[in-house]
Amino acid sequence: xxxxxxxVKVIPNAKKERIFEDLFGRIKIWVCSPAIEGRAxxxxxxxxxxxxxxxxxxxxxxxxxxxxxxxFRVKFK
Length: 77
Prior knowledge:
Number of helices: 1
Largest sheet: 5 strands, mixed
Oligomer: single chain
Order of helices and strands: EEEHEE
Strand order of the largest sheet: 2-3-1-5-4
Radius of gyration: 11 Å
Number of strands: 5
Distance between the termini: 5 Å
């Protein structure tokens, strides 16, 4: 099993969910959920897992719980 760390910038309260990856590997994710009680974090993890084609349980937030800049660890099988 391998792991990769993703640098993600989150934009909560968006009108629709979308994802963008730049040439440097940084990911920007827009989610409809508000940044209240971890709702946006859960939505970002779900969007990221769908984008990468892994189970949502394989995506773990490791830094930036209350920040727009986050680090996610993703485990690939």
